[in-house]
Model the fold of this input.
Amino acid sequence: MKTVLLTGAAGSIGSGLRRELKGVYDELRLADIKAINDVGPGESFHRLDIADAGTLGAAMKGVDGVIHMAGQSVEADWETVHRQNIVGLYNLYEAARIAGVKRIVYPSSNHAVGFYPRSRRVGAVTVFRPDGRYGISKAFGELVAALYADKFGIGSLCIRIGNANDKPIDKRRLSIWVSWRDLAQLVRIGLEHPAIHFEIVYGVSDNERSWFDNATAYQLGYRPQDRAEDYAADVLAKELPEDMTKVGPRVIGGSFADDDYAGDPNRFEKFRY
Ligand SMILES: NC(=O)c1ccc[n+]([C@@H]2O[C@H](COP(=O)([O-])OP(=O)(O)OC[C@H]3O[C@@H](n4cnc5c(N)ncnc54)[C@H](O)[C@@H]3O)[C@@H](O)[C@H]2O)c1
Done:
């Protein structure tokens, strides 16, 4: 793989991946709606708006694979989520199809399955249980990835990212944290593994408290280097008691599930699947 387009390159994960992927590909083509002023050797920059389809074609030219990190990364009003993660996501896949791109790494989220209880172990083949508008948009992206794999032969690795950061910052993150190098390893599997068609993995490090069955990632060769448990003593020493009358502390999505929550806080346990 020679030329890789990284959308959302100015963002948190985009910046982490720029560091981790330095020198791996001949050209790392950065793209964002925001300017990037520190373009380094082996990098180039395209300013674009994924919600404006006309701005994507030039950036896609000659690209072998796309890491698509641009978009709305937390809960927001529907207009924003729709523009960024529904319209923008669809534009991205369409532009990739037109340009003949064969691989896309799509950052899905734990929030696509955020209403599963923490007592369950959730695998890749599961019914979506989004915990908000953002979670719905992440599930939508997985469906687009499935369609473009089956209909057009564009291979996608959907990574349901937990939380990417230098280290886990609270008790919930001890279960869902992913380090930069582990996330970069998954991204490289998504771009380079010959058998990718439409795959779903969890973007988590080797976490003892994980809520996910990440067997597909391991089958694809994922060997995480980092463990959230190494930070557990520090994290738990600072943790405040959780309010267990709320739904958030009992489901994967945490506070996202609490946003606008109405009625019986035990309702999520009645789900049949
Ligand atoms: N950070 C995490 O732990 C995490 C967890 C789960 C999923 N994700 C997903 O990973 C992706 C990246 O997350 P992040 O934390 O780096 O987000 P971020 O908000 O830090 O970065 C997003 C980037 O996208 C750019 N962007 C926004 N709208 C755009 C548009 N219309 N056109 C072009 N660029 C646009 C922003 O300028 C920003 O640089 C998101 O899709 C997010 O949903 C992240």
About this structure: Residues 8, 10-14, 32-34, 48-51, 69-71, 73, 84, 88, 107, 109, 161, 163-164 surround nicotinamide-adenine-dinucleotide (CB under 6 Å).
